[in-house]
Each structure stands twice: as structure tokens, then as C-alpha cells.
Write a structure and sequence with these properties.
The chain is built from 10 helices and 9 strands. With 245 residues, the protein is of the alpha/beta class. It has a single domain (6-226), classed as Spore Coat Polysaccharide Biosynthesis Protein SpsA, Chain A, CATH 3.90.550.10. β2, α3 and β3 (65-68) form a beta-alpha-beta unit. The longest helix is centred in the last third of the chain and has 18 residues, at 209-226. The protein is globular and about 40 Å long.
Length: 245
């Protein structure tokens, strides 16, 4: 299939926003996978939280725009503030996209007239990690219509992002899920079936698989019954696993 013309015809530009902090080991993989896409109407914005490694240099070498970021919520919001596109695609820095991901993600988004969407996620780890993500994918698919979940890959209309006020900087954990749920209250949220995007298993390796799994299960129940997690009870840290590959 040739280059996608959908966004050109609709006069749309895709702004890809990636929050970073010391991501020199992973960012090149993601950027290379973006460059291989059968799609070219995009800009890449790296929202960096004062990296001390070569992250910013790598971003510039790949032709990305860079802005000052912060925690993941702030980084996404800062990137969105300077984005030129009508659609925003928030990606975590440690992902790898399949070669036709954008094509199979963006076209259904437009056809279904969604306001916000995500996709299935998998892992570059072993069987346990992959099984954990399969369970997560099944759960978010089952709850799609009434309890939105969106993490690592989030596509949203820029006007909707502005209307909802962006990501809540005060939320310590699961701010991405809460963001999607706020949008679901006023618009259309959906999960688009694509090949799962591959993410790093580094958090599982650093924190322990069982501990990490239980933390996210407990966090899910907390958000359902008590709302956003605005205290640091889960001790979440943004990229504290440098060099633990």
C-alpha cells in the first residue's frame, strides 16, 4: 500500500509527543520504528525532563523538536502546548512500533470518529511478562465501554485534550487512565485492534514482577473506589531504572 493520504486530505497533522528522562538506550529504537512507518504527515516532539545523558542530542539528530518537560503528565502537556497537529499521539519512550502501526491505528480512529483511543500492549520480556499484558489487554477490552484505560499509547484530538484540561499533574500514578476516563465522560473512547505495541520489561526487572503486578491491581481498585491517586502511597518514580536492561 502507498503512502497514507488520509491526513493530508483532511488537512490534519499528527503530533507525536514523547516524554523522556535519560532515555538514550530506548529512544533510538522508538524513533527508528516511527521513521519506518508508511506515513509521513507528522512531527515528533520530545518533552524532556532535564536528561543528563544523550537523550536530547539523539532527539535532535532524528530531527525532533524538543521542549522542557517534567513528570509524564507535565511532559505530555508541555508537548501538547507546542504541537501543531490536530491529532496528538502520546507515546512512552521505551516502545517499539510495528512497521504499519500508524496506518492501522489512525485510519480506524478517523472512521469511528473517536475522541480518544489506545491499543493493546505487549512486552519484550519473557512468558510471564507477556501473560501479564495479555491479562491486562483482556481486562481493558472487557471494560472499554464504561471504564476507559489508556497507557503508553494514547491518541486524542487536540481540541478534546484542551477541553479536558490535559493530564492532571497532581496525579501520582495512573494519570493516563484517569485522563481517558475524563474524556469518556464527554466523548467517544475506543480501543483499536492492531498488533500489540511492544514495551520494555525494565520496570518488572527493577521492581519485581509480582510486586509490580500487585501494585497496579491495587491501584486499579483504588481509582475505582476512591478516585485519582494524588498521594505518593505507591512510590511511583519516573525512569529510575537507567542501565537496568
Amino acid at each position: 500500500m502507498g503512502r497514507i493520504k488520509t491526513f493530508i486530505l483532511l488537512n490534519m497533522l499528527l503530533s507525536i509527543i514523547i516524554p523522556t528522562l535519560n532515555e538514550e538506550d530506548y529512544l533510538p529504537r522508538l524513533l527508528k520504528s516511527i521513521k519506518k512507518q508508511d506515513f509521513e504527515s507528522y512531527e515528533i516532539i520530545i518533552s524532556d525532563a532535564n536528561s543528563t545523558d544523550n537523550t536530547v542530542k539523539i532527539a535532535k539528530d532524528f530531527g525532533c523538536r524538543t521542549v522542557k518537560g517534567g513528570n509524564p503528565a507535565e511532559g505530555r502537556n508541555k508537548g501538547a502546548e507546542v504541537a501543531k497537529g490536530d491529532l496528538l499521539l502520546f507515546l512512552d519512550a521505551d516502545l517499539v512500533l510495528s512497521e504499519e502501526f500508524l496506518k492501522f491505528f489512525l485510519i480506524p480512529f478517523i472512521k469511528r470518529d473517536l475522541d480518544c483511543a489506545t491499543c493493546f500492549i505487549s512486552s519484550d520480556g519473557g512468558k510471564f511478562d507477556k501473560l501479564g499484558f495479555k491479562a491486562y489487554n483482556y481486562y481493558v477490552r472487557a471494560t472499554e465501554k464504561f471504564l476507559a484505560h489508556a497507557t503508553q499509547v494514547i491518541l486524542v484530538k487536540k481540541k478534546v485534550h484542551k477541553k479536558v484540561g490535559g493530564f492532571d499533574r497532581e496525579i501520582k500514578l495512573a494519570e493516563d487512565h484517569m485522563y481517558a476516563r475524563e474524556i469518556q465522560k464527554m466523548g467517544k473512547f475506543g480501543i483499536i485492534k492492531t498488533e500489540p505495541v511492544i514495551g520494555s520489561s525494565r520496570r518488572f526487572k527493577k521492581e519485581g514482577r509480582i510486586k509490580t503486578f500487585l501494585k497496579y491491581v491495587i491501584a486499579e481498585f483504588y481509582t475505582i473506589f476512591f478516585g485519582p491517586i494524588k498521594s505518593d502511597i505507591f512510590k511511583y518514580k519516573f525512569n529510575h531504572y537507567k542501565k537496568d536492561n
